[in-house]
């Protein structure tokens, strides 16, 4: 069962990937953006998107754009980890108001910020949420808003996942830390403790999961939350070994992430300060239990790791035959 889906954050990694997946499933796409003309050329492959001009911080803009929609993908995040409380909560409240007005189902990409040590290392959907970061507390409050809205008749689906990677994941750790886009692989920088497990979400698989859940939304409770297992690597540093194998550079060096520098610059740089707060996610094992998702869908969309990494590195021009510059 499909219809019209409003995408908030269509230029972001999850928003764009999910828009493609929904299109493949037969959904009509509508998108809200502050300057649609500036982004239409880069997203022309999506075909006939119904573009609406507006801002996610405006309840009136979202409500007008959502009129007649069956689905609302809320894939907007404050850029660069900045001002989460001042931006993330109001934007979600606006989406909830718009979904109520149009009787649309909200879909929200979630993450693992909600959880603290009492939920690790294997986390189920109903695990206790005692975050140890400010952004984690905001995430807890965002889920509480959806649960409250569900009691008032507003349906929502939350899908939690680990760190993104894949074509289009421009703001990810993979693109900005592990490898250097546009260069043949000479080294891999790993941000975490080598022996701690880490969860990765390949964007095309995550997007396909959102689309399958959207198609079957009427079979779900008013507030449904699932965990996307993705690629869990233990020890986490295995991602570096896999990248080197796929790139054909087994001798590429392994480098530590310069946390000392990020911490030193934190008092002068908001992004660095926020990154330091989230370091614990790289130093502790956290695996998302996807058994409920598999029970509902029958399977989790899953691209083999070597294939997912090959597509990701190719998109970043990091493979020998596609790299644009020499290291």
Automatic annotation (TrEMBL):
GO terms for molecular function: aldehyde dehydrogenase (NAD+) activity. Residues 9-103 form the NAD(P)-binding domain. InterPro entries: NAD(P)-bd_dom, NAD(P)-bd_dom_sf, NAD(P)-dependent_oxidoreduct. GO terms for cellular component: cytoplasm. This is NAD(P)-binding domain-containing protein. It comes from Saccharospirillum salsuginis. The lineage of its organism: Bacteria, Pseudomonadati, Pseudomonadota, Gammaproteobacteria, Oceanospirillales.
